[in-house]
């Protein structure tokens, strides 16, 4: 009986010994240490745009998969496959989208593959150490689209029509029939004993202040990006247009208190400083104090300026202090109020509800839109220029508004 029991125990151990041998053989034939990992990525990515991360791996086996943990500011596929490349290498291209400004680190890459006998799975970790910079979107500036628009508007045919209607002296010329009698310079005409007219043109070197509300309401996502990023894109495009148009550009940011102020400066250097500043503008979760912020802005800008305010509000009650302080600014300055409209909210009110919950949501959405309209109408009656547009059209609308103000000599 004892001999039989010992024999059965040895037979029971035998499968485990065979399994251990198979695992050792499987590991020996399947394990291969990957070689060097090379990363290629663009030096800068515009927020809201898509880029590609290129990975090259030396001395690697085929059918190799990988996993990557994306940081908060980047969005892409977490798992992907390497494909055979030249000279016993593997390569892959991983598209990703930049969703937050900042400098984002990709520290590690995990590889994983099954052994030949499917008994094991290998998951080595490789150091990636890649740094990706997500910066404000200046695609329209780089393409020359804004430059062409501004130059053709301010220095082309329109300026020729505006001669004699501006406020800045341009030159003297002989008076000819058909010219406005009010343009005659009587003193110089008396000296020359012939009629001489003053030719005027649109005034340059206006002060333009970009004021960005960086409170928690501007962190709301619209079209896949926070409102503050849509505002930054429109602000940079308008600042470039103002620099091309000969105006002086300054910037100001605030949330619970005033944060950064830069006095208006001429030329493209002002745009470069504005771009660097907006690239470092952090995302905050603090409520905006409009009273303190706009009072400080009014004190810092004694000269009449064009102030472009990017902000947001929830309802008429929360907008009361905002309206009151903007009314104080309008006594000295010309204001453009930029509000970014939510296209999903508009789509919601155009869709018939399916149930009671949908009907309640529809009523709430309608109320929100009506209160928003009431606030904007109150601001318009105070003399504020309103730019209320969807994210994809706010930049074009704002630049058109700026050029119209320039052409009408409103500053």
TrEMBL record:
Q: Which InterPro entries match?
A: DUF58, vWFA_dom_sf
Question: Where would you find the membrane-spanning parts of this chain?
Answer: none
Where would I find the DUF58 domain in this sequence?
172-348
One Pfam family of this protein, by short name?
DUF58
What is the protein named? Answer: DUF58 domain-containing protein
From which organism does this entry originate?
Roseibium album
């Amino acid at each position: 009986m004892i001999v039989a029991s010992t024999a059965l125990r040895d037979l029971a151990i035998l499968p485990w010994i065979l399994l251990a041998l198979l695992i050792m053989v499987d590991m020996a034939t399947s394990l291969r240490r990957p070689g060097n990992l090379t990363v290629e990525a663009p030096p800068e990515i515009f927020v809201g745009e898509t880029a590609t991360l290129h990975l090259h791996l030396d001395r690697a086996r085929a059918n190799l998969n990988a996993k990557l943990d994306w940081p908060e500011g980047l969005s892409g596929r977490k798992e992907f496959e390497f494909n055979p490349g030249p000279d016993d290498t593997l390569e892959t291209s991983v598209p990703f989208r930049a969703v937050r400004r900042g400098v984002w680190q990709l520290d590690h890459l995990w590889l994983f593959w099954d052994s030949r006998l499917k008994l094991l799975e290998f998951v080595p970790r490789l150091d990636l150490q890649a740094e990706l910079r997500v910066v404000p979107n200046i695609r329209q500036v780089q393409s020359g689209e804004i430059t062409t628009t501004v130059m053709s508007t301010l220095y082309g045919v329109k300026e020729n029509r505006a001669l004699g209607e501006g406020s800045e002296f341009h030159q003297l010329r002989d008076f000819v029939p058909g010219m406005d009698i009010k343009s005659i310079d009587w003193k110089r005409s008396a000296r020359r004993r012939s009629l001489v007219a003053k030719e005027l043109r649109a005034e340059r070197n206006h002060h333009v202040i970009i004021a960005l509300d960086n409170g928690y309401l501007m962190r709301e996502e619209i079209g896949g990006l926070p409102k503050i990023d849509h505002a930054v894109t429109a602000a940079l495009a308008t600042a470039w247009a103002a620099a091309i148009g000969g105006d002086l550009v300054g910037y100001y940011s605030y949330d619970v208190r005033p944060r950064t102020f830069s006095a208006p400066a001429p030329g493209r250097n002002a745009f470069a400083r504005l771009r660097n500043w907006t690239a470092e503008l952090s995302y905050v979760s603090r409520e905006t104090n409009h009273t303190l912020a706009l009072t400080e802005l009014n004190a810092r800008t004694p000269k009449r300026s064009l102030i472009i305010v990017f902000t947001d509000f929830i309802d008429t009650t929360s907008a009361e202090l905002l309206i009151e302080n903007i009314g104080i600014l309008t006594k000295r300055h010309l204001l453009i109020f930029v509000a970014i409209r939510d296209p999903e909210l508009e789509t919601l009110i155009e869709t018939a509800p399916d149930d009671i919950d949908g009907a309640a949501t529809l009523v709430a959405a309608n109320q929100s839109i009506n209160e928003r309209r009431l606030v904007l109408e109150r601001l318009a009656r105070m003399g504020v220029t309103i730019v209320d547009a969807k994210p994809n059209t706010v930049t074009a609308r704002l630049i058109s508004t700026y050029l119209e103000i320039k052409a009408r000599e409103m500053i």
